TrEMBL record:
GO biological process: DNA metabolic process
Protein's recorded name: ERCC4 domain-containing protein
Pfam families for the chain: ERCC4, Lsr2_DNA-bd
InterPro entries referenced in this protein's UniProt entry, alphabetically: E3-bd_dom_sf (IPR036625), ERCC4_domain (IPR006166), Lsr2_DNA-bd (IPR055370), Restrct_endonuc-II-like (IPR011335)
Recorded coiled-coil stretches: none
SUPFAM superfamilies: Restriction endonuclease-like (SSF52980)
Span of domain ERCC4: 129-209
Species the sequence originates in: Mycolicibacterium flavescens
Gene3D superfamilies found in the cross-reference section: 3.40.50.10130, E3-binding domain
Lineage: Bacteria, Bacillati, Actinomycetota, Actinomycetes, Mycobacteriales
Assigned keywords, A-Z: DNA-binding
GO terms, molecular function: acyltransferase activity; DNA binding; nuclease activity
Length: 324
């Protein structure tokens, strides 16, 4: 039976203390890496020549392989043991250099795509007020955008915007595990049905659609059929798959900002708004960026013509107004 071999790197001063030898049809692959399994983070793997495999290796683990097949830019590694039995050797490019990472399903979820989300305001809104459901655990913070978060009970969804106390858009957030469990229990059907009563609504999933077919909790075909049925029954509520939590948060912000602009700028939209009242508490959002910029210029402080103001400018404004 083929085995994945993990040995001690004979170069004791190396920052990659282990050797990983992976059998492949065209010849074994050998890497230096920092751990024996990608449990809490993806492990960087430095490719090596097979000639560098020690003549008398100090074997740490011998892991029997059920499968070890290359699929495109990744090698799927499946062990015969019950737990921690799946991982991938991924060949990718980082900053123009070819790199290799060893990742498990758990660490893949935590990985971030090689992108930077924009910080420009959505729809040009100076500060967007987003309502966050009081029952939402580990809520989005939108800390890269200028928003005001108001936590309160929402009739549906996890994040919403309101105009004149009326809910105009809402987003239901789902992790992949939450999505599959709510599909199985039928909870998602009721949630999407309730969202459909709003003028604008969506479900955002913090994962790829492809991961639906790797799930062992529910048959992939059943999950895919149920999702397709929900989209046919309630076509006004899109189900959007984003690669990571970071991208799902960014998408939610952009969606709610667009819905807010739509609701306040189109007369026809205002007539179609569903009468779902939301008792949004009044909050003091403070001055706008334009107000503080004008004050800073009058005070002789250097500020840019556009964009965000430095924290010390805001602090100076607060100190000046507190003194008054």
């Amino acid at each position: 039976m083929a085995e994945l071999l993990i040995a001690v790197n004979p170069q004791r001063d190396s920052r990659l203390p282990y050797l990983v030898r992976l059998p492949q049809p065209g010849g074994d692959l050998l890497f230096r890496t920092s751990g024996t399994w990608p449990r809490v983070k993806a492990l960087y793997c430095h490719p090596m020549s097979l000639d560098e495999w020690p003549a008398d290796p100090e074997i740490v683990e011998r892991l029997p392989l059920q499968s070890c097949q290359r699929r495109g830019a990744a090698i799927d590694v499946i062990l015969t043991r019950g737990r921690e039995n799946r991982s991938q050797i991924v060949f990718t490019t980082t900053r123009g250099r070819e790199t290799v990472f060893w990742q498990s399903p758990r660490t893949r979820k935590q990985a971030r795509p090689n992108v930077r989300t924009p910080t420009a305001r959505a729809q040009g809104i100076e500060r967007l007020q987003i309502l966050v459901d009081a029952h939402e655990r580990y809520a989005y913070t939108f800390n890269t955008q200028q928003v005001d978060l108001v936590k309160q009970a929402l009739p549906c969804g996890d994040y919403a915007v309101a105009v004149d106390g009326t809910l105009v858009a809402s987003v239901e957030r789902k992790s992949m595990s939450d999505l599959t469990s709510s599909l199985t229990s039928g909870k998602l059907r009721y949630q999407v049905g309730h969202l459909a009563s709003l003028p604008r609504a969506a479900v955002v999933v913090e994962d790829r659609y492809s991961q639906l077919f790797r799930n062992t909790f529910i048959r992939p075909a059943i999950a895919a059929d149920n999702l397709a049925e929900l989209q046919i029954r309630w076509p006004t509520v899109p189900i959007v798959f984003c690669e990571t939590r970071q991208l799902a948060e960014e998408w939610t912000y952009r969606f709610l900002a667009a819905a807010h602009t739509w609701a306040v700028s189109e007369e026809a939209a205002l007539q179609r708004i569903s009468p779902v009242p939301v008792a949004a508490p009044a909050i003091d959002t403070g001055p706008s960026t334009a107000d503080v910029r004008a004050w800073a210029r009058d005070a002789g402080l250097p500020v840019p013509d556009r964009g965000r103001l430095r924290p010390e400018i805001w602090q100076a404004w607060r100190e000046a107004n507190d003194a008054e």
